[in-house]
Amino acid sequence: MSVAEGVVSPAGDPAAAPSSTNAAQLEDAADPGTADLDVAPLSDEERVEIRKRNALIRAWDRALSDMRQRSYEGKLTTPARWRKLSLAPAGWNAKAFEESLIDYIESHDHADDSPALNEPPAPAPLDVQLEGVEHTDDDPLPELSVADVVMLFGKKTVYLYSKPLLSHSFAHALFMTSEDDDLSTFIDMVRTESRLYPRPVSRDTFMNPPYLWAPSKTAQVFDQVVADGSFPDIHEVRASNGVVNYYSSLYLSDAQAQALAEWYEVEKPQNP
Question: Which of 115, 260, 254 is nearest to 196 (CA)?
Fold first, then answer.
């Protein structure tokens, strides 16, 4: 729900009231002192529940704002981060707080794990959204938007990032390296590049963050892929300058991979 949707609408216009309204009713409607007579005051229990919910929403907002900032910095976020920052509100233990936010994201519209195409900007922090809006401690806060949040489920934890702030390919690379599975990381990278762009992947690419693999390690991982025998679509191709590239035959033919490797490794650098 947007901030605008979280603000109570003004009372109905007395001018639109039925013509049968008697004079006393019209007089009351014109008197500001009677405007809120029909609104029942909050009970102590209702006030306590609203304040508890508001405290939880504000804690969720701090966690989501931190996650978005980390996405901007090229990092994934796990629930362990929220525990480290002690974000749980009073009365909540860390585990229950983490589960509550994950449940909230899963039960609301959130982003899928696909390349971003014309994504709307990530939501601003709650305090920014509420600037200029009158709000007391007893007014329920609006629901938080998580439409930009992507969840990647690993073997032991869930990783989150903001889709408009972190590219799909880099998020996947971070995810795979965090899961500490070199074979899966290599295969996912090669298939993703071949499918999305399409292009083969230079061996030197794995020297960059988040991999930081020496060329010898990348060569060893490719040898493991070949020896495993379960990934017959993963192949090696060399440009005329000897630079090794990898591609998936699920998305590129041998001829396409050879031509693209030559373009990226030889022709493009010569024709900037």
Answer: 115
Tell me the pLDDT band of 39, cut-offs 50, 70 and 90: low
- The candidate with the shortest Cα–Cα distance to 136, out of 36, 50, 62, is 50
Complete DSSP assignment for the chain: --HHHHSPPPPPPGGGS-TT--HHHHHHHH-GGGTTTTSPPPPHHHHHHHHHHHHHHHHHHHHHHHHHHHHHTT--B-HHHHHHTT-PPTT--HHHHHHHHHHHHHTS----SS--SSPPPPPPPHHHHTTT----TTSPPPPPP-TTEEEEE-SS-EEEEETTTS-HHHHHHHHHHHTT-HHHHHHHHHHHHHHHS---EEGGGGGSTTT---HHHHHHHHHHHHHH-S-TTEEEEE-TT--EEEEETTT--HHHHHHHHHIIIIIHHH--
pTM here is 0.69
pLDDT digits (tens, 9 = 90+) for 45-65: 889 999 999 999 999 999 999
The answer to whether the peptide bond before residue 198 is cis (omega within 30 degrees of 0) is: yes
Structure tokens at 222: 């490719």
- CA 230 to chain CA centroid, Å, is 32
* Residue 249: Cβ-neighbour burial (10 angstroms; 0-12, 13-18, 19+): middle
